[in-house]
Structures are given as C-alpha cells and as structure tokens.
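From the shared-data thread, chain only:
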Amino acid sequence: MSTQPALFTPTLPPRTEMERAFLEGDASYDGIFFTGVRTTGIFCRPSCRAKKPLPENVEFFPSVREALFAGYRPCKRCSPATPPGTVPDWVKALLDAVEADPTRRLHDGDLRKLGVDPARARRYFLEHYGMTFHAYCRGRRLSGALRQLRSGESLDDVALGTGWESHSGFREAFTRTFGTAPGAARTIPDAAVVMTTIETPLGPMVAGATDAGLCLLEFTDRRMLEAQMRRLQALLKQPLVPGEHPLLAQAREELAAYFDKKLTAFTVPLVFRGTPFEERVWRELCRIPYGETISYAALADRVGSPGAQRAVGRANGMNRIAIVIPCHRVVNSDGKLGGYGGGLWRKHWLLGLEKSG
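Structure, as tokens:
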C-alpha cells in the first residue's frame, strides 16, 4: 500500500487550525494531517467531500501509518493512503511504452490495446505535460533525432530511424518544432528545452533543461504547470520536447541525494528568466541556507523593496524551479507556512526534511 513518504516525524498544526481546515474541506492541508472519524472507523483527507462529522467525533493523525495503527481504515471516496500527485498506473504504462521504443509511432489503436481511452490520455497529458499524448510522443522522437544529428549521424539514418516514413515529413516536423532545418541543427546550441519526468518521494516532477542549465522543475499536479511551460517557452524562444539530457541526469541524482539527506546545496547550473524583479527574488532565494526560513517581509528587504511582501509572494509563486530554488523556505511573519505552488503539504514535508537533517 502506498503511503506518505516517511521522511521525518511530522508535527501537527494546532487542533483549531485542523478542525477549520477539515470542516472547510481545505485541500491545501492534504498530506499535512489525516482525520479519523470515531463513529465510522474511517480516516480521510481534509479535502474529503463526504459529509463532515461533529468535531468531537474526530481525531487527527500526522500520517497514514499512525491512522492505520490506530485501527482506522482508509476512506474509499478520498483514498487518503495514495499520496497526492501520484502518477496513475495507466499513465506509467504509456510512459514505459514510449521509453521502451522512443522511435515507435503509437496510434489510438495502440492505446486501446493498453486499455487506455485516447481521449483520456489527451486530457491528462494536456493538463500535466502541456501537450497531447501524441505531441509528447512526436516531441520525444524529435528530441532523439536532434541528439543523433548533433552526435554526427547522417540525416538519412536519423530521419528513417526515428519513426518518419519520408525525409520530407521529417524535415517539416523538425523545422516546425526547432525553427531550423535538420542540416543546421549540429551548429545551433540550445535548440530546445529537453524535458523528462523525475520521480521523487513527494510525487513526480517535470524537469526541463537546455545546454546552459536546468530551467524547469515542477510537480506534475501543479495547477499552473501548463501556464508556466507556455511562459518558459516564450521567454527562452525554444520548443519543449521530451527526452534526456546530461543536466537532467545531474538534477535527478542531486534530488535523490537531497531527499536522502546527503545533499544540502545543489550544483546543477540554472537558467531562469523573468522580470528583473522576479530574477532578483529568485537569486535571493538561492541564498537562503538549507534548514532555515525567512519571512516574506525579510525577503522584500533583502531584494531592496521594503514593504513589497505581496510582490515578493507573487514572484515566489512564479518560480519554475522548485526545491532547487528553495521558495519553500519563505514563510509568513507569524510563523505560518503561507502558500506554496506545489501544495502546502509538500512545503510542510520539505521544511521538516531539512530541519530533521
């Protein structure tokens, strides 16, 4: 059974705060605590849409494990034992099929053989990857083609070896995606933002890198993900294509070490583009030491804009490189967590991980 990652022993918020969050169905507290209902023997997420019991019939737990050990069984409606952000099994099957043979062209009939409705795949990939499933597959083939061309392989071999039936079809797709003909690709740096998924204890993340550095690292269930990807593409003026890249491999290794409490400072190079104010905020975020937090007001002072807490908060929320640019280390002046694009429960876990290290 999947449970929340056992990174550290979490502390619960005040009971009054948990009661309010539970009664209001506040999804930002999902993963921070769980509610056991004494009259039914069931435990739920705070956001569960089932009828709310009387507060005196509820007890709170910091993790799935504690709720199970207390004798409660998980609610079938809100599935509290499944971590938020978990990739569905059918999506994993599709991604595995793509990676097993990136040059293969998967049609709707192939999806149905895997038990997946093509319309469902389209909606999911649009929401979580900013492109349809078929666009994802096409981008994966094109990113492989770009890598092969840069390594010196012949245009003929690349075109026919990456799933295209004709040279003209390959040239058209390549030029439309990268803005240049395949023959010129060997000499043009940073032709694309190469994207992949990285599994973490807090759920999968979408990562993107150019030859210059990591430019995207977001949880796949973030609501603003599609908008963030569109803005990134516009700022860098480069297409987003699935694939692998040495800097993505470095980011994956460093994240694993971070979650294993073996790394406190990331070294993967970064590329971040935004307004001058946003970039000042993001650079200052990188200076917050591991295991420490500062307030939005203090951050505003550090970037030379005293009193601009709201503007700092907006810039914080526009950060596209989560964890590595540690926007989770900024909290309210009263000590409360404040907001977090990846979900308040993740901010709670990240701060707990760092303080327990």
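The first strand starts at residue 34 and ends at 37.
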